[in-house]
Design goal:
single chain; 246 residues; Phosphatase 2c, domain 1
Length: 246
C-alpha cells in the first residue's frame, strides 16, 4: 500500500477559538489506516476526546490489523472498542471525561478490502472521476430528515439542527459504530474523510474536482478555504483527509 497511495490532509479551526478536530494516518507495507475525529464538549473536553481517540486507535493498529483479513467486521469493531478503553485510560481521573464526546470516521485499506467505520457526522466519501460512489450515513437529526425526504443533501449543512447527533463516542458507554466492508480501492479512485466543518459547505459534485488527474493539495486547500468562506463567519473546525490511488 505504501507505494500506491497518495495522501493530502489539512485542518483549521475555522472561526472557532479552538480546533477540536483531530486526524491521524498510518501507511505500512500491507495496509493503510486513516482517521478523522471531531470532538464535542466544553473546557477542552472535546479536544481531548478527539485526540485521545485518534492516539489510541493508531497505537493499536499493529495489534488488530493482522486480524482483519480473517474477520474484517469483527476485527474492526474489536479494535474500536479497545481504542475507547485506552482512551478511558488516557483521561485517567480527569473529570472532563464525562462530558467529552467525539465523532469518528475511520478508513482501512489493504489489497483485499476498503473498510469504513464511523460514528456521528464525520464522513467518508468514495469517489471516482465521474461520481460520488457512496458516502457514510450520518448519525444525526438532519440525516433522519433527509431519509424521510424532508431535506435535500445540500440543505443538511445549513439546517439549524445540523449539529444534533444521534450517536457519538464517549468513554462511559460502549461505542456503537457502523462498519462497511467494500472492494479494495482501485486506480483513479479517492476517499475523502472529513469533519462537518468541511462537508456542510461543499456540494458533492464539487468533490469530483479532487478526482481529476492533475488535482493535488492546492485544490484541496482551495476547497477547504471555500468551505470556511461559505460559512460567513460561523465556520466550524474544518478537517479533511484525501486518500487517492494513482
Amino acid at each position: 500500500m505504501r507505494t500506491t497511495l497518495e495522501v493530502h490532509q489539512l485542518s483549521s479551526k475555522g472561526d472557532r477559538e479552538v480546533n477540536q478536530d483531530c486526524m491521524v494516518h498510518r501507511i505500512c507495507a500491507d495496509y493503510g489506516v486513516f482517521v478523522v475525529a471531531d470532538g464535542l464538549g466544553g473546557h477542552h473536553a472535546g479536544e481531548k476526546a478527539s485526540q485521545f481517540f485518534c492516539k489510541a486507535l493508531i497505537s493499536l493498529a499493529d495489534l488488530y490489523c493482522p486480524r482483519i483479513r480473517a474477520e474484517p467486521e469483527k476485527a474492526v469493531n474489536d479494535w474500536i472498542v479497545a481504542a475507547v478503553g485506552r482512551m478511558r485510560k488516557l483521561f485517567g481521573d480527569d473529570t472532563a471525561a464525562a462530558d467529552a464526546y467525539t465523532t469518528c470516521a475511520i478508513l482501512y485499506l489493504d489489497d483485499e478490502h476498503a473498510i469504513s467505520a464511523h460514528c456521528g457526522d464525520s464522513r467518508i466519501y468514495r469517489i471516482d472521476s465521474k461520481q460520488v460512489v457512496w458516502r457514510t450515513k450520518d448519525h444525526s437529526r438532519t440525516q433522519l430528515l433527509l431519509d424521510q425526504g424532508k431535506l435535500s443533501e445540500w440543505e443538511m449543512g445549513i439546517h439549524p439542527e445540523q449539529n444534533q447527533l444521534t450517536r457519538s463516542i464517549n468513554v462511559s458507554t460502549p461505542p456503537l459504530v457502523d462498519i462497511g466492508v467494500f472492494p479494495p480501492i482501485r486506480s483513479g479512485e479517492s476517499f475523502i474523510l472529513c469533519s462537518d466543518g468541511f462537508w456542510e459547505s461543499i456540494k458533492e459534485q464539487e468533490l469530483l474536482r479532487l478526482s481529476q488527474v492533475d488535482s493535488g493539495k492546492a485544490e484541496l486547500k482551495k476547497m477547504a478555504q471555500l468551505a470556511v468562506l461559505r460559512a460567513q463567519g460561523k465556520s466550524d473546525n474544518c478537517t479533511v483527509q484525501w486518500v487517492r490511488m494513482r
